[in-house]
Design a protein that fits this description.
This protein is α/β, with parallel strands linked by helices and 218 residues long. It has 7 helices and 7 strands, in the order ββαβαβαβααβαβα. The protein has one domain: TIM Barrel (Alpha-Beta Barrel).
């Protein structure tokens, strides 16, 4: 596995669980608001690459104190070794939460069929007709829709997540997006952090807005 980060303990990434978090290298989207730019290239920096053996050693040591492992990215489903890696996690008795953008339903289908994931969180970037704008690429919307259906019908715990990028999405867009969420599925809105955006224009707009805010008297 091409791993780019490892957090041995997290209380907020796996709902209701104490978990470790593993970050995979590489993403097929180029969302202008992304704040994890270092994870986008498929080729990792040798200086920051995380050794899988070290991760497994730490998890083996702590497995009785952890409730699960979150595999996030980047986009984990780009990793050819993902099923093998998840099987290693399951042999430790750890539940697995997968964070995905939903662009590879074929991979997701295999993981669900082999019961390698216990929770799936899928990003829902925008109304379907605005996906190219919010992902920065000409993406296959039908693939995301297929992943959504797989998740909802799998019986696995799941959630859909959206970052509220106000410069790129309107109130009408948010309403249309909410209509895309399957009935009965959890949907959460995430904070947009413009200071770390990939698009310099979003960073500049945030800086300008901050500069225009009145300051409290000393």
């Amino acid at each position: 596995m091409n791993l780019a980060g490892f957090v041995p303990l997290s209380l907020c990434d796996y709902p209701g669980r104490v978990a470790a978090v593993v970050f995979t290298q590489g993403c097929n989207f180029r969302c202008p608001w992304c704040h994890n730019g270092h994870l986008l290239p498929m080729a990792s920096d040798p200086a920051t690459r995380v050794d899988e053996a070290r991760v497994m050693a730490v998890l083996s040591e702590r497995c009785t104190r952890l409730g699960g492992v979150v595999v996030t990215g980047g986009e984990p489903t780009l990793q050819a070794d993902l099923p093998r890696f998840l099987k290693r996690l399951k042999t430790l008795g750890l539940d697995v939460k997968l964070d995905t953008n939903g662009s590879h339903p074929d991979v997701l289908r295999r993981l669900l069929q082999e019961r390698l994931v216990d929770y799936v969180a899928m990003d829902m970037k925008a109304p379907w007709d605005k996906y190219a704008t919010l992902t920065g690429v000409a993406c296959d919307v039908a693939a995301m829709q297929a992943s959504l259906r797989l998740i909802v019908t799998s019986g696995v715990s799941h959630a859909f997540r959206t970052t509220r990028v106000d410069p790129l999405l309107s109130a009408q867009d948010y309403a249309r997006l909410a209509d895309q969420v399957p009935e009965g599925s959890l949907h959460t809105w995430q904070l947009f952090r413009p200071a770390y955006s990939q698009d310099p224009a979003l960073r500049a707009a945030a800086a300008l807005a901050g500069a225009s805010q009145p300051h409290a008297p000393a």
